[in-house]
Design a protein that fits this description.
Structural class: mainly alpha
Largest sheet: none
Strand content: under 5%
Radius of gyration: 17 Å
GO molecular function: DNA binding; sigma factor activity
Family: Belongs to the sigma-70 factor family. ECF subfamily.
Protein name: RNA polymerase subunit sigma-70
CATH class of the largest domain: Mainly Alpha
Keywords: Sigma factor, Transcription, Transcription regulation
CATH architecture of the largest domain: Orthogonal Bundle
Pfam family, one: Sigma70_r4_2
Oligomer: single chain
CATH superfamily of the largest domain: RNA polymerase sigma factor, region 2, helix turn helix motif
Length: about 180
Amino acid sequence: MEEAQLLTDLKSKDKQEFAFNELVSLYKERLYWHIRNIVKSHDDADDVLQNTFIKVYRNIDSFKGDSKLYSWMYRIATNEALTFIKKRAKQLQISNEEFQDLAIENLKSDVYFEGDAIQIKLQRAIATLPEKQQLVFNMKYFQDIKYKDMSEILETSEGALKASYHIAIKKIESYLLNQTSI
């Protein structure tokens, strides 16, 4: 189904339920992995994904079409994931960075995590980056999202995103090299 038709159906009361199921089917896996790269935990990613789709459903009538539907949903997912981290860190009375470190540490016991020690090191390296660089790196490295789409999602110029990605790679390389020399 074309995005324009899907959007029309989502805004139509008699076709909305079918269209929303189609939307979930189309985007749930990509959005899940985007969220999972941010929050780390499978269970937390599921919760944030559910909240994302609830927000999409509730706000579809206010979607103006200035960007692609896909970009709009990714923006919602990103904001939901970042809000989740901030809220959870506040509940635990720790910083966002400490919460991320805790989430990475918990990956070792996460039955849904299929990575190894190298993946854990990479996650630790990513966690040292500023929030924006983390997002850009995760979206480019893990999901291969094009800069053009990323610029719609993060509402930043393609040039700034390319620079962020390049800087993120240098910082990750430096982190990993320093870890192996210790």
